[in-house]
Specification:
single chain, five-stranded antiparallel sheet, 2 helices, 10 strands
Length: 139
């Protein structure tokens, strides 16, 4: 199945914390980073997700925010360091490609944000992704 979601990275489930309706799933990506996804308990059961399962993380580019360094005091659990490899700007929006260990992320952010942050190829950034914005697919 082909998807329009630009950000797809494989990993292994490290831990699963089920709640009444939702579960958090900690995944180690192929590049070694650990990220957390918050998905429904029903999805966990239907996909057969368990510790040790191979999964694919799916993150829409519009759900990736960028910072020019590590960020403290923030509820966003997923902070992945990387280097900008390409910036494509349009009238209002921009696509920013970020090389991260084991892959690449694309962020769709405003052109103003690109300019304000001074983003260009070679810029060091941190990709910020809320755990509720990460979908999982069974591998």
């Amino acid at each position: 199945m082909s998807l329009s979601i630009r950000n797809q990275m494989s990993g292994t489930v490290l831990a699963l914390s089920p709640g009444e309706v939702m579960a958090t799933v900690k995944v180690r990506l192929e590049g070694g980073q650990e990220i957390t996804a918050a998905i429904t308990l029903e999805a966990v059961e239907e996909l057969g997700i368990a510790t040790g399962s191979e999964v694919r993380t799916l993150i829409k580019s519009t759900e990736v925010a960028l910072a020019t360094g590590a960020v403290d005091g923030l509820s966003i659990r997923n902070q992945i360091p990387g280097t900008v490899t390409d910036v494509t700007t349009g009238g209002a929006m921009a696509g920013v490609k970020v090389a991260v260990a084991g892959g690449e992320l694309t962020a769709a952010i405003t052109r103003d944000a690109v300019e304000d942050l001074g983003l260009a190829a070679g810029s060091e950034v941190t990709a910020l992704i809320k755990s509720t914005e990460i979908a999982l697919a069974a591998a």
